[in-house]
């Protein structure tokens, strides 16, 4: 395992400014309805009861999954509370974790009836007004937080050169237990390991591949097993290019789902649909919105965008999706979507004034 050293990141001053800037929060709106068609939601910004922050402070809310008993686990990057555990009503049951300062990705897996979590520490983190970078890692834990094993810098298995950064953002688990790591803030590859953490292969990258299938910030990855598919495939975010790419489990490129105007994070497969938060967006005039932006994207069974809660209705022209444009001041930076059993959504936000996730209550009529 490589030594993890803290040092100032090489991010540009502009990027650092976006990461650390704090603006006054907008006044909360009441009874706001967003979305289109069968995907309309009532916004509940106060899903988490007031007063919870006294014992469970947060910095950024990155990703959330639900386990079989109904509890919701959320990974963040607060120095003393990197894992928060919620009930469906927003009550925080417990918080713990100090070993993932860049806590970013969270994936649930079921192994012979027992549940485990894969925590992805991106290696990017904040302290006060400073932004830092270190080598990231992926850790498998049980639901109590006990570590099973970790995967660190790929140079240790010959998959990377020592100078190549490793700042992973997400993990997906294949049907046979293989572990697919998206190096979204590092070297833009997907790294494949077997269920025990032995390196198998890598694919993707930003350089030396056709522009139409490159991975430009592979921020998220998910196993797609929706009906109608002959075999399970991988959906990989290419956030810088506003799209998802589809690959075989061996890394062969299959196609692209374009989400123009949406800087999508990880794909979340639920039923026959795929959900994703868009961390940034553009306004109706097409202007990029670096702060107080974002919305949610819903992709249907035919890989078409069927709704965009928080944005104008998706519109296609001759089979091509027009750029998605934010329409509501609901989200700061919509980073992840957790879909509950009844179709409600819990949206985790990055750089959102240290606020808890927002609930979107799905309307049935």
Short key terms for the protein model shown above:
365 residues, mainly beta, Neuraminidase, 5-stranded antiparallel β-sheet, 2% helix, globular, disordered N terminus
Describe the fold and architecture:
There is one protein chain. By secondary structure, the protein is mainly β. The chain has a single domain (30-362), classed as Neuraminidase, CATH 2.120.10.30. The protein has 1 helix and 32 strands. It has one helix at 13-20; strands spanning 7-8, 33-36, 39-44, 61-66, 72-76, 83-86, 92-96, 103-111, 114-121, 124-127, 130-133, 137-142, 147-151, 170-173, 179-182, 189-193, 199-204, 221-224, 233-238, 243-247, 253-258, 268-270, 273-278, 281-282, 288-289, 295-299, 305-307, 316-317, 320-321, 334-339, 345-349, 358-362. The strands form 9 sheets. Strands 2-3-32-31-30 form a 5-stranded antiparallel sheet, with no helix packed on it. Strand 2 and strand 3 (39-44) form a beta hairpin. The radius of gyration is 19 Å and the shape is globular. The protein starts with 6 loop residues before the first strand and ends with a strand. The model is unreliable at 1-28 (pLDDT under 50).
What is this structure, in a nutshell?
The protein has 365 residues and is mainly β. It contains 1 helix and 32 strands.
Strand order of the largest sheet: 2-3-32-31-30
Question: What is the architecture at the second tier of CATH?
Answer: 6 Propeller
Low-confidence stretches: 1-28
Helices, by number, come to: 1
State the end-to-end distance.
54 Å
Tally of discrete structural domains: 1
CATH C-level class: Mainly Beta
> Considering the protein shown, what is the CATH homologous superfamily?
TolB, C-terminal domain
Q: How much helicity do the residues have?
A: under 10%
Overall outline: globular
Average pLDDT reading = 90
Gyration radius (Cα, Å) is 19 Å
Secondary structure category: mainly beta
Strand content: 35-45%
- CATH topology description: Neuraminidase
Number-wise, the strands total 32
> Main sheet?
5 strands, antiparallel
């Amino acid at each position: 395992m490589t030594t993890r050293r803290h040092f100032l990141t090489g991010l540009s001053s502009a990027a650092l400014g976006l990461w650390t800037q704090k603006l006054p929060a907008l006044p909360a709106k009441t009874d706001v309805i967003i979305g289109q068609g069968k995907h309309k939601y009532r916004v509940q910004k106060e899903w988490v009861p007031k007063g919870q922050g006294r014992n469970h402070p947060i910095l950024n809310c990155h990703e959330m999954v639900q386990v079989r008993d109904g509890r919701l686990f959320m990974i963040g990057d607060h120095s003393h509370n990197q894992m928060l555990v919620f009930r469906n009503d927003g009550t925080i049951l417990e918080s713990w974790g100090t070993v993932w300062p860049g806590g970013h990705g969270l994936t649930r897996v079921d192994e012979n009836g027992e549940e485990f979590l894969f925590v992805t520490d991106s290696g990017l983190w904040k302290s006060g007004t400073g932004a830092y970078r270190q080598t990231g890692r992926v850790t498998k834990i049980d639901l109590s937080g006990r570590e099973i094993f970790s995967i660190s810098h790929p140079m240790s298995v010959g998959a990377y050169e020592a100078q190549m950064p490793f700042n992973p953002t997400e993990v997906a688990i294949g049907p046979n237990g293989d572990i697919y790591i998206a190096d979204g803030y590092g070297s833009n590859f997907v790294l494949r390991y077997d269920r025990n953490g032995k390196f198998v292969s890598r694919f993707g990258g930003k350089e030396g591949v056709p522009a139409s299938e490159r991975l430009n910030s592979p921020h998220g990855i998910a196993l797609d097993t929706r009906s109608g598919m002959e075999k399970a495939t991988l959906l990989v975010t290419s956030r810088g290019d506003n799209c998802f790419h589809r690959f075989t489990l061996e890394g062969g490129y299959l196609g692209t789902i374009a989400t123009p105007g949406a800087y999508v994070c990880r794909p979340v497969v639920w039923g026959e649909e795929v959900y994703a938060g868009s961390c940034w967006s553009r306004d109706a005039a097409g202007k990029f919105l670096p702060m107080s932006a974002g919305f949610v994207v819903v992709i249907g069974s035919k890989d078409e965008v069927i709704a965009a809660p928080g944005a104008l209705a998706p519109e296609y022209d001759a089979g091509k999706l027009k750029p998605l444009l934010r329409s509501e001041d609901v989200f700061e930076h919509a980073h992840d979507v957790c879909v509950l059993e009844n179709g409600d959504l819990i949206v985790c936000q990055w750089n959102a004034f240290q606020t808890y996730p927002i609930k979107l209550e799905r309307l049935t009529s």
